[in-house]
């Protein structure tokens, strides 16, 4: 299984979100390259990063009342990661390697669907992910600030462009 490479396809134009996604790729690559004796340790690091990654996005969504099932997908992924970790710790290496095979496609779909919609919404309403607050000049172009619930929340990255 080859390493995952960062590409413009994963770039959403929100610095902090893009940086976190780059880190996700780095943690994934460390996991993907792990020899069997280091797999659990690297999976633990990957899970720790993913929890922080999802907590960050969930916080942003809460602050702007972002609608949809984005948070639920985060929760499902964490359940799978923790289940695979538990099984891998008991010697089930097949599921661990299968997880590694599936993560690149999942990330691509998640970033270019759910995360693209979130990034577009945050940019549209003037939410600054660095300060986790609305910019002073925010016009709330997608309804009132923090109101969520607008049509742009369901656009894919290509539709949002």
TrEMBL record:
**Entry-linked Pfam families:** Hemerythrin
Gene3D superfamilies attached to this UniProt entry: Hemerythrin-like (1.20.120.50)
Q: Per its UniProt record, what InterPro entries does this chain match?
A: Hemerythrin, Hemerythrin-like, Hemerythrin-like_sf, Hemerythrin_metal-bd
Task: Could you list this entry's UniProt keywords, alphabetically sorted.
Answer: Iron, Metal-binding
Keyword Iron carried by entry? yes
Domain Hemerythrin-like positions: 15-116
Report the transmembrane regions from the record: none
Q: Which CDD domains match?
A: Hemerythrin (cd12107)
Keyword Iron part of the UniProt annotation: yes
Describe the family membership recorded for this protein in Swiss-Prot or TrEMBL: Belongs to the hemerythrin family.
What is the protein name stated in its UniProt record? Hemerythrin domain-containing protein
| Annotated organism of origin | Thauera sedimentorum
């Amino acid at each position: 299984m080859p390493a995952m490479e960062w590409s413009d396809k994963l770039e959403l134009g929100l610095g902090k979100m893009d940086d976190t996604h780059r880190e996700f790729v780095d943690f994934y690559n460390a996991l993907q390259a792990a020899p069997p004796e280091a797999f659990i340790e690297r999976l633990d690091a990957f899970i720790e990063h993913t929890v922080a990654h999802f907590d960050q996005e969930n916080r942003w969504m809460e602050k702007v009342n972002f609608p949809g099932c984005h948070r639920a997908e985060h929760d499902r992924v964490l359940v799978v990661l923790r289940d695979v970790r538990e099984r891998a710790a008991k010697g089930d290496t097949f599921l661990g390697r299968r997880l590694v095979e599936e993560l690149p496609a999942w990330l691509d779909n998640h970033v270019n669907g759910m995360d693209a919609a979130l990034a577009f919404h945050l940019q549209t309403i003037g939410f600054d992910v660095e300060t986790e607050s609305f910019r002073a000049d925010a016009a709330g172009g997608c309804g009132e600030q923090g109101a969520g619930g607008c049509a742009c929340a369901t656009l894919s990255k290509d539709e949002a462009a």
